[in-house]
Write a structure and sequence with these properties.
Elements: E1 4-8, H1 18-26, E2 32-36, H2 37-40, H3 48-56, E3 60-66, H4 74-88, E4 100-106, H5 124-127, H6 129-137, E5 141-142, E6 146-148, H7 156-177
Parallel strand pairs: 1-2, 1-3, 3-4, 4-5, 4-6
Helix pairs in contact: 1-7, 3-4
Length: about 180
């Protein structure tokens, strides 16, 4: 059975509907381990040796995060910066070669805002290119990003729809990683 490592980069998971729901579904899977970066490193001092060991022991690595201002939240960026040099150039070079890498993200805006003629002027995959290249630099098998758009709600009906959509997003991830 594959060992799946989920790296949660949400800065405030308690107040999140979408990311919290996704993680709640994923944590019920026997082969999934979730690392909540804010719980582990609220001081932003990442234990890179521990994190690298956990990655080396995994078959699939999923970065789960809200898409913030065209990038990742600060805690996830700090985590990426702390593990990458060792895995690309240093003593752990090639350690993730052949492992699977998936970006799983949520956006506040609707999907049509992430189009060439939409509000954000670029497709979501284009905006995620630096992170996709990260997986490539780590010599991983980089799969298509899994994106949940419109992760905001204005009323109770919207909240219920968001929770359902987040559950579907999590089930899609489970299906992808268990192929």
């Amino acid at each position: 059975m594959k060992k799946i490592k989920i790296i949660s980069g949400h800065p405030n998971i308690v107040d999140s509907i979408a990311n919290r729901t996704i993680l709640n579904v994923l944590e019920k899977e026997n082969n999934f381990t979730i690392s909540n970066l804010m719980n582990n490193y609220s001081d932003y001092k990442v234990d890179s040796d521990k994190e690298i060991k956990n990655l080396l022991d995994s078959d699939v690595i999923v970065l789960q995060f809200p898409f913030h201002w065209y990038g990742v939240p600060a805690i996830l960026k700090m985590w990426i910066d702390s593990i990458t040099t060792s895995l690309v150039y240093g003593p752990n070079k090639g350690g993730l070669k052949g492992k699977t890498f998936i970006l799983s993200t949520t956006t506040g805006g609707p999907e049509d805002s992430y189009q060439e003629n939409g509000y954000n002027k670029f497709k979501m995959k284009e905006l995620l290119l630096p992170l996709l290249k990260l997986g490539d630099s780590l010599e991983m098998i980089v799969l298509e990003p899994v994106v949940l758009h419109s992760a905001m709600f204005k009323d109770e009906t919207g909240k219920l729809n968001l929770e359902n959509n987040a559950k579907q997003h999590a089930l899609k991830l489970i299906e992808i990683v268990n192929r």
